Amino acid sequence: MTGPTNTPARPSAGRAAAKKELPEHFKAYKHVWVFVEQERGQVHPVSWELIGAGRKLADKLGVELAAVVLGPSGAATRGIVAESFCYGVDLAYLVADDILADYRNESYTKALTELVDTYKPEILLLGATTLGRDLAGAVATTLLTGLTADCTDLDVDADGSLAATRPTFGGSLLCTIYTLNYRPQMATVRPRVMPMPQRLENALGRVIEHPLAIVEDDIVTKVLGFLPDRDSAKSNLAFADVVVAGGLGLASPENFQLARQLALVLGAEYGCSRPLVQKGWVTSDRQIGQTGKTIRPKLYIAAGISGAIQHRVGVEGADLIVAINTDKNAQIFDFAHLGIVADAIRLLPALTEAFRRRLSPHSRDRIAS
Amino acid sequence: MHIVVCIKQVPDSAQIRVHPVTNTIMRQGVPTIINPYDLFALEEALRLRDEFGGEVTVLTMGPPSAEDSLRKAQTFGADRAVLLTDRYFAGADTLATTYALATAIRKIGATYGVPDIVFTGKQTIDGDTAQVGPGVAKRLGLVQLTYVARIVSLDPQTRRIEVERRAEGGVQVLLSKLPCLVTMLEATNEIRRGSLADALRAARSVIVKWNAQEAGVEDIAKCGLRGSPTIVKRVFAPSPRTGKAALIEIGDRQPAEAVIDEIFKRQPKLESDLVALARGF
To answer: Which DSSP symbol is given to A74?
Structure first.
């Protein structure tokens, strides 16, 4: 991995000038790995999304893509290995031991760092979930390597380095981060940021099993139980086909209800931008953006949202973004597909009423005739 | 019981402005606050101290002006404040930050008593990485309990701690042992109004200030920019989508009708999808 990068040196990028040669012992690090996150046999979908992203990186580098599956011994864990082949990995590293039945930082960190030390990947990707972040921080510190959190774009440079892009400065700008002289290059990505790859039937691959070098007595923390969330407590925001969200332009918690009413008529989920959560108008599980949910709906209506970068990165996967804002220079019009310069407080009730008329079965017949 | 709480002074991010032409951050006049997530950690630490006795030490790494945040933490009732400040710490990524903080916590342990619990917030609002808590735990060899929604019980005699930890799709109930590092979830408690006595004490208190050497740093190459495996190669504003938003021409239609017409013109299939969706509710 020698040769200059394509990126022109910038005087402002002082850290970039620090490019050195990759130490000899890191040159053996090859291939792209995705940590496949499962709890109680359920794989978190972010793992499949990461396999899709990892596939592109591996192909560009001309290396293999591997899944890392940790879990209890038995058919369920092996089923996850088989499933990861269907999403496109070439091989899977498997540590199957009943100690790994529940996620615990100590046992999972031990298993994952051992795999890395033994089989030496150049890139290791994890989901930015509560589990993935807990594990990634511990593993990166144990390995003394770089870790870039919550990436919104992953690419490899001309010299084969991972270019990990994420929002910075509280989500007001983007930055591209490199781990130049350490391996593996680690990154986490939030759920729904990367598209779900196509699933292929009956795909096969190699499985490399590795033993777990830790016994139960070595682990301090015990799992006493797991209390699943009540279904009513879960919002389906991240997976909704239609989302209506409100921002500071709505001016009051009462006016935020106007966005909720439109969502109700559309059978949509409702959400909001970050300032509304900070003001306490809306609960944090409804926040859309870098530090909230990333959405990929067919239709996204943003009412009174200015469109800061940290919001933008959470909605760019939408098929159609419709922005309502009084300020024609608002950033949201830079990335929305359709815009209307209007006061959302006045337009939302009219939209709700007009949609109600259009979508009711009777009026549809009338329109059709 | 001795509890260390790591806090960070951050810009009040809601007020960060980007220069429209140069795309640089306009830092002038941006007020700073204690990272809001850290206040949940501080309050939890104060509650444990009130219940079991002992002391709370707040620790931050930052420029000399970060003293303001430490003094603020003392007005809430923290007993002692340590500021880790040195130009060698500048430009640290999360790995270099955990090295400096872990070193300082060892020094705090040697000077004021080994901590039973180290608290951090779940993440900061400027970096948003959630990596520093786990990194400090790993470097100190502490059990890490992240995203803690509730400390169910704590027994200083048996050193047992039971917590509820936020996981994906539910809550994990964990039994562990002190010493440990806990990162507190948001909205788990509410920071107290400090007492008048605390405010007076904070105004008079002497903040302990350590540079790298005083904190016990043995290898300066592990600190700051030099100790950071990650480098920021480029900071930029995203380019507008090719062709900005098409502004809807209202013409002689009602504005709401015009919006709906344009939506269905762009995505013809959406109309039948919406009818199906709306019927489902």
So the answer is: S
B61 and B102 housed in the same domain: yes
Taking CB atoms and an 8 Å limit, are B228 and A133 in contact across chains? no
Report the largest interatomic distance among the alpha carbons of chain B, rounded to a whole angstrom.
78
Tell me, yes or no, if A279 comes closer than 8 A to chain B by beta carbon: no
Domain ranges of chain A: 22-218, 233-368
DSSP conformational letter for B222: G
If you count residue pairs, one on A and one on B, with CB atoms under 8 Å apart, how many are there? 302
A180 touches chain B (CB under 8 A): yes
pLDDT (tens digit per residue) in B74-111: 999 999 999 999 999 998 999 999 999 999 999 999 99
**What's the pLDDT tens digit per position in B201-259?**
999 999 999 999 999 999 999 999 999 999 998 888 877 666 788 999 888 888 999 99
Minimum-distance CB partner of B134 among A104, A134, A338: A134
Q: Are residues B163 and B218 in the same domain?
A: yes
CA distance A281 to chain B (A): 14
CATH superfamily for A233-368 is TPP-binding domain (3.40.50.1220)
A228/B170 CB distance under 8 A: yes
When CB atoms are compared, the residue of B128, B228, B255 closest to A350 is B255
* Rounded alpha-carbon distances, angstroms, from residue B81 to A70, A125, B55, B58, B240: 42, 37, 11, 5, 46
Distances (CA, A) of B101 to B11, B134, B212: 20, 12, 10
Q: Which domain holds residue B265?
A: 239-281
Looking at the structure, do residues B198 and B75 belong to the same domain, yes or no? yes
B135 and A141: CB-CB below 8 Å? yes
Q: Is B48 domain-assigned?
A: yes
- Residue B254, chain A, CB below 8 Å: the answer is yes
Domain count, chain B: 2
B136 and B82 part of one domain: yes
Contact A149 B130 (CB under 8 A): yes
Planar angle of CA A102, A107, A109, nearest 5 degrees: 115
- Residue A301: name the closest of B20, B252, B262, B221 by CA: B262
Q: Which fold has domain A22-218?
A: Rossmann fold (3.40.50)
Q: Are B98 and A141 within 8 A, CB to CB? A: yes
What does pLDDT average to over chain A?
90
